[in-house]
Amino acid sequence: MSDWFAHPWWLASILLVLALVAAYVFVLRRRTARSLRFANLDVLKSVSTGQRDRFRHVPFAILAVGLLLLTIAMSGPIAERDVARNRATVVLVVDVSQSMKSTDVAPTRLQAAQAAGKRFADDLTDGINLGLVSFAGTASTLVSPTPDHDATKKALDNLKLAEKTATGEGIFAALQLIQTLNAALGGDNAAPPARIVLLSDGKQTVPSDPDDPRGGFTAARKAKEKGIPISTISFGTMTGTVDIEGPNGNTETVDVPVDDKSLHTIANLSGGDFFTASSLDELNKVYATLQKQIGYERQRGDNSRPWLIAGTLLAIIGSVAALFLNRRLP
């Protein structure tokens, strides 16, 4: 019972409410019996109003229910609820390789990622340190984790495309940012929980083997060792293309399908979650899910307020109804 109520002994007060109901029924029946004993039945039938008799017990019933709810409120009901985190670290890792200029996601993959990333920064709870890393052939640390989410929004606006895709370097750079912040906060044990959110559309090209010491899979295993899950977002479609200018000045159309498999593997290796998005709307929904996962935590706590409000309102309604229907308090 203590798992459900902080003060379960107050539930014994329900017996008082039931006793009140029993007393009401007893008095009502006794009054009816007395009336029938001494009253002229013909006169009683002529002056009684069926409509009023039909509803005269409603005010007391409402009041009794209100008292039951107030009794539950006094018992301190406990419930799980989402509570905003006041400490956490998140690093966005965004792919800026040339494939991100594909227009299969309007207006382009990169522009959609920028818009969704800024919305994510806006919606993230204030107590979370947010950082930003971009990567193509190398990784660039754009914003160290900070509660000033506007800094990340400004940096997202300035993302520039570059050659190649070094997914592992982007993850390693994010891990370094988190490690640096944790050291400043007193070490890993004293540091808040951390998460990496990796958005990419393509297969790693540098190095070619993701199991290389600087590869994406190796970086994911390192994140797992550090207890930092990576939530990966595979962004784009299987039909994406980009126009690449060749050495002779000719333009060549190259297929750039998303690589769900490798991003799924990175999420699994790190203990994180894998998402897919093929439009800005879908990406916003993914970020909304992540925002809820990262920005809030489930906690058990006092849930008496809704019971208190409902009980009080019913008690007031019951009293008012008694005054209007029965011309007296119940």
Q: Tell me the span between the first and last alpha carbons.
A: 33 Å
Choose one word for the global shape: elongated
Amount of helix: 40-55%
Q: Give the helix/strand class.
A: alpha/beta
- What is the makeup of the main sheet? 6 strands, mixed
Under the CATH scheme, which class of the largest domain? Alpha Beta
Annotated CATH topology of the largest domain:
Rossmann fold
Q: What integer value in Å does the Rg equal?
A: 32 Å
Give the tally of β-strands.
10
What does the average pLDDT come to? 88
Determine the oligomeric state from the structure.
single chain
CATH homologous superfamily classification of the largest domain: von Willebrand factor, type A domain
Number of structural units classed as domains: 2
Low-confidence stretches: none
Strand residues, percent: 15-25%
Give helix and strand order, one letter per element, not per position.
HHHHEEHEEHHEHEEEHEHEH
What is the CATH-assigned architecture of the largest domain? 3-Layer(aba) Sandwich
What count of helical segments does DSSP give? Answer: 11
Distinctive features:
membrane; alpha/beta; Rossmann fold; 11 helices; 330 residues; transmembrane; two-stranded antiparallel ribbon; Aerotolerance_reg_N; transmembrane helix
Task: Give a brief outline of the structure.
By secondary structure, this protein is α/β, with parallel strands linked by helices. The chain contains 11 helices and 10 strands.
List the helices and strands and how they pair.
Blueprint: H1 14-38, H2 41-47, H3 50-55, H4 58-74, E1 78-84, E2 88-95, H5 109-123, E3 128-135, E4 139-146, H6 149-157, H7 167-184, E5 194-200, H8 216-225, E6 230-235, E7 241-245, E8 251-255, H9 260-270, E9 274-277, H10 280-295, E10 296-302, H11 304-325
Parallel strand pairs: 2-3, 2-5, 5-6, 6-9
Antiparallel strand pairs: 1-10, 3-4, 7-8
Helix pairs in contact: 1-4, 4-11, 5-6, 5-10, 7-8, 8-9
